[in-house]
Amino acid sequence: MNSRTLVSDGIVSTLCRQCDMHCGINVQVENGRLTKITGDKGHPIGRGKICPKGTAALEMIYHRDRILSPLKRMPNGQFKPIPYDQAIAEITDKMSEIKAAVGARSIGAWTGEAIGFLQQEEYARRFIHALGSPNYFSSESVCYAARHIAYYLVQGYYPACDDYANSSVILIWGANLEITHPPFMREVLQGKQKGAKIVVIDPRKTRTERHADLAVRIIPGTDGALVWGLISHLIRNGKHDAEFVRQYTVGFDDFKAYAEKFDLAVVSRETGVPTDTIRQLADLIARNVPRISQYVGISLEHQVNGVNVIRAIVSLGNICGSTDIPGGSPWPEYPDVRRLTLYDHLPLDDLQPIGADRFPLLYQFRKQCSSLMAMDYMLGQGDYPLRGCIITGANPVLTNPNAAKVKQALSSLDLLVVKDLFVTETARLAHYIIPAASFLERSELHYYPRKYLAALTRKVIEFEGVRNEYDFWKDLADALGFGERYFPWPDETAVNQWIIEGSGIDFQALEKSTCGVEYAPVRRRKFETTPFPTPSGKIELTTDVTTFRGSPSIPEYLPPRHRPGQEGTSVFLLATGARSPFYYHSRYRNIERFQKRKPEPVVKINALDAERLRISNGEKVRIISKTGELVISVKILKADEVLPGILQIGHGWDQGNVNLLTDDADMDPISGYPNLKHVVVRVEKTQCE
Ligand SMILES: Nc1nc2c(c(=O)[nH]1)N[C@H]1C(S)=C(S)[C@@H](COP(=O)(O)OP(=O)(O)OC[C@H]3O[C@@H](n4cnc5c(=O)[nH]c(N)nc54)[C@H](O)[C@@H]3O)O[C@H]1N2
Ligand SMILES: Nc1nc2c(c(=O)[nH]1)N[C@H]1C(S)=C(S)[C@@H](COP(=O)(O)OP(=O)(O)OC[C@H]3O[C@@H](n4cnc5c(=O)[nH]c(N)nc54)[C@H](O)[C@@H]3O)O[C@H]1N2
Ligand code: SF4
Ligand SMILES: [Mo]
């Protein structure tokens, strides 16, 4: 492995970008080799702590399986290393061929969670528009955008994260923050230390629940009933912030009338939560208005009425008056920097971005095409063919629903390029695999909008033959003849400087600071002087249906189509994807010390169900859904660790891909998000007794 560190000895302070938390880290360099990563105690995010994934960065970048040369799939299916220039020439020739035959829009770009958000994804967006295609896909077809849509519909912005440290009540809806967002969890615990009460709403016992003052074991898919019950209780008892509601919201009368349906008995019947617990929770909120904060987890996005449930949750916060106050839900402000995207110059909306007609809000608010629908277009079932795709930082064969279809669709392409650190299950289908540069091999801008901080990550190392994201898209653009026009900057440092030019952020200050520089003073209660960025300028407790096609103006509750245990003894609701501390989606499966801790995928089942089905620990069972089946080992949970009738399988495993069971057609009609949390399955024994 030929690598060069940018300093030969010493400590480089930068940010970890192995998840979107961006904790501050110190990277130790000794004799031109990175030897250790520790948390940066002075950094406001992380405060010296790093999680298991954070500690694995060096094992990942120096891993023996890392790809360091472009690979081309030969007719016999084997991959052969080829020179980088040859790869770029062949890829761009093929792109020109597709463009000439069926049009530029038949080529898409796709970024995954590894490089999602802001700068790295904006390179891909810029490139694909410069090529003439509107088709940009990302992991936002299954993550974050549904939340954004819901928040935007109600209040016109997304809070990034509530102010837990100063809150009185912290409601954690369907999330396991201790594992998934350790810095947020630390803020939650700070709040607890100051007296805040923590409420965790989840069908199973989680690490986060251990810190809860109130654990609400809810039947999956019924969060909507609970939140309406809480809204109803608040309004009925006059405990909401009536003055805030009067001045700053629209739709309250209809909202209130709808809430009346949800009395304690109804809510308890729907959610399976005892009436006492619901009353306790409602009173807790009522006593602590307005310092209420919330976290909405991924499980609310992965349900078929997800956007509306989240709208109701956001509205609950707003009627408590927790909007943009300390201890509530901040209205973040971003610096006024330049964007790399071309939507203002080359919108291409007339070229039918995939999914923009069916999921207009996904496109309107996030400029995202639907990666689920992309599969249909690849398979010739769309309005036009999708024949080429460049995927970087994603592994959709393991992470998109209906894996068999994803595999078939990607395999049918005329051109599939995958940029990754490893030969992943998705890369195996590619015509070309391009080595990717990890986060330590690039420099990019990052903003912490809650803290009004801008930061610059540092390139610490480079590997011979590996081009970073910017260089890669520029190389393609140069070969296609539009590099000079759209990728004129010689390198990413020049891009970074261009982005912040004129914004008031000083580049040299960024280069010097390890903790980021403040780009504006922190402001609260902005609504007193600035209208909310919604059509009415107010919080929209109900939304004009014309902007919100086919959906009720009130975020109505829809009872789940299936409830655990309702259809007989071997039918279950399968929740997929609960996160493990060691793995990040499909990542880190090749880190040996993690493999030892969690060597294989398992299906988790309640002890009572296991006993009923005569299933024992470690036994292999067959799980069958409408879409596919999977044989997997059993792990039995104690009866109080999960509600009966519910199964749990993690995602991202090659040797047990749970997305073989998930259905890409079962989705929230507003966001286009797949149901990944409540999949109806049957369990069969594979061994005779
Ligand atoms: N270590 C690690 N950290 C990660 C990731 C990772 O893969 N590994 N992934 C990152 C990404 S991209 C994301 S999106 C986040 C996700 O972060 P979280 O939102 O915290 O996701 P999960 O850990 O899956 O927790 C979801 C919880 O919802 C519960 N649940 C399932 N169905 C329902 C329901 O209907 N209602 C309620 N109330 N709860 C339900 C599940 O039991 C589970 O405990 O994590 C991020 N952080
Ligand atoms: N069944 C089920 N499926 C799910 C979920 C679920 O809960 N249940 N959760 C969904 C969610 S929330 C999300 S966000 C998606 C995530 O879906 P993906 O974005 O596909 O997730 P990863 O497996 O993290 O894929 C990242 C890839 O990028 C590579 N990589 C790492 N660092 C870099 C880098 O710096 N540059 C480049 N170019 N590549 C890099 C990694 O090796 C890996 O192959 O999964 C979704 N899939
Ligand atoms: S939470 Fe872990 S993986 Fe995420 S940025 Fe912090 S140290 Fe890195
Ligand atoms: Mo995600």
Explain what this protein looks like in three dimensions.
The protein is globular. The chain is built from 24 helices and 27 strands. The longest helix has 19 residues, at 84-102. The strands form seven sheets. A seven-stranded mixed β-sheet has the order 6-5-16-15-14-7-8, with helices on both faces. The protein has a six-stranded mixed beta barrel with strand order 22-26-23-25-24-27. Strands 11-10-9-13 form a four-stranded parallel β-sheet. The model has no long low-confidence stretch (mean pLDDT 95). A hairpin with an 8-residue loop joins strand 2 and strand 3. The chain is α/β, with parallel strands linked by helices and 689 residues long. The chain folds into four domains: 3-61, ADC-like domains (N-terminal domain of TfIIb); 71-144 and 341-448 and 453-518, Rossmann fold, CATH 3.40.50; 160-319, Dimethylsulfoxide Reductase, domain 2 (3-Layer(aba) Sandwich), CATH 3.40.228; 571-685, Barwin-like endoglucanases, CATH 2.40.40.20. Residues 113, 143, 298 line the site of molybdenum atom (MO).
The helix count comes to 24
Strand segment tally: 27
* Spatial extent as radius of gyration: 25 Å
Give the CATH class of the largest domain. Answer: Alpha Beta
Q: How would you sum up the global shape?
A: globular
Bound molecules: ligand MGD, iron/sulfur cluster, molybdenum atom
Q: Enumerate the spans where pLDDT stays under 50 for 5 or more consecutive residues.
A: none
Residues in helices, as a percent range: 25-40%
Structural class: alpha/beta
Compute the average pLDDT: 95
Q: Would you identify the CATH architecture of the largest domain?
A: 3-Layer(aba) Sandwich
Strand arrangement in the largest pleated sheet: 6-5-16-15-14-7-8
Tally of structural domains: 4
State which percent range the strand residues make up: 15-25%
Q: Predict the CATH topology of the largest domain.
A: Rossmann fold
Kindly report how far apart the N and C termini lie. 52 Å
Profile the largest sheet.
7 strands, mixed
